Amino acid sequence: MKKTLVIAMLLSLIAGCATTEQIKQIQATADKALATANSASSSADNALQTANRALEAARNAQSAADSAQACCNDNKAKIDQMFEKAMKK
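Structure (tokenized):
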């Protein structure tokens, strides 16, 4: 039984071995997949940098809007005070 098992294993290994051409094709496919993955990684890095710049711009815009709102609120308060003074006279 052991002899038969060993022979069967050897036959399956011999039958399952890849040719040099098949190995080259597999390597070419792996190289192409790696190049595609590297390209996708580079694109993702660029997208992240763009998103970070957009986030910074949005934060700056929010800060400017907050400052403008504060100025508007101050002006409104001053106008209200002036109106109240004028109505008292």
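The CA atoms of residues 54 and 61 lie 10 Å apart. The mean pLDDT is 87.
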